[in-house]
């Protein structure tokens, strides 16, 4: 089997581990910088070209698309789908999960637990927007933010109003969410492969930090999920159409709430915290999918 990993850097931990796991299983694995790919879009023989050579003969593609490169990255994934190559996550599922507002709307439609969330365009509607989520303290998030960047905790009404006005002054799209104080700066990352949660960890924010991201000094350790948390994580990934996903949950007074569904979750933190060979489980999943004849063309472009 030949596997292509779409990643900007072969040296990244997740990319290197996936390559290692694939080669250990006896497969040929090639890391491809998707930003250097160009495409021949034709009805009869669609192609992806890399370094002057058409990329042909691949059985599976693992997309590791950066959040800031979603548009072009998903176009490359879509082209592989048109060629009938199996992709661990479809282009549509990646796009759907990357749009934070669309993601929350889909999750809400499926009846999944979410923080109370508000969204508005005009600064004239700030008062109503703050009231929707129950007032301060509240969390303000830029839709384009990643790894905790562009996320602000506003502890008072006036602070919230000032931050919202500032973000909208930059024409930034934002979400306003209730602050789940009982979580105590801790969230849970559930790593899903197929229809299973293969690993889970709790992430605790640094002292005085409400964001639990490891990139911001948070710590992580293995955690046992409750049946409700496991079910919520699996339902969230399924709602997005993702086969490989990281689902972030908070423990609230009214049960688990979904904060984010990530289509390219990092492997380093989860593997170190849990000791689970997540990369190996992804390769095993691909092997079963390809052997069962699943196609990359899922009919949803």
What do you see in this structure?
- The chain is globular.
- It has three domains: 2-92 and 284-291, Rossmann fold (3-Layer(aba) Sandwich); 97-113 and 182-276, D-amino Acid Aminotransferase, Chain A, domain 1, CATH 3.30.470; 117-179, 2-Layer Sandwich (Dna Ligase, domain 1).
- The chain starts with a strand and ends in a 10-residue tail after the last helix.
- 33% of the residues lie in helices and 27% in strands.
- The chain has nine helices and 16 strands.
- Helix 1 (13-24) crosses helix 9 and helix 2 packs antiparallel against helix 3.
- By secondary structure, the protein is α+β, with helices and mostly antiparallel strands.
- The protein has helices at residues 13-24, 70-82, 91-98, 100-109, 126-132, 157-169, 227-240, 268-274, 278-291, and strands at 2-6, 28-32, 37-40, 47-50, 53-54, 60-63, 86-87, 117-118, 138-142, 151-154, 174-178, 186-193, 196-204, 219-222, 244-252, 255-262.
- The strands form four sheets. The protein has a five-stranded antiparallel beta sheet with strand order 14-13-12-15-16, with helices on both faces. Strands 2-1-6-7 form a four-stranded parallel beta sheet, sandwiched between helices.
- Strand 3 and strand 4 form a beta hairpin.
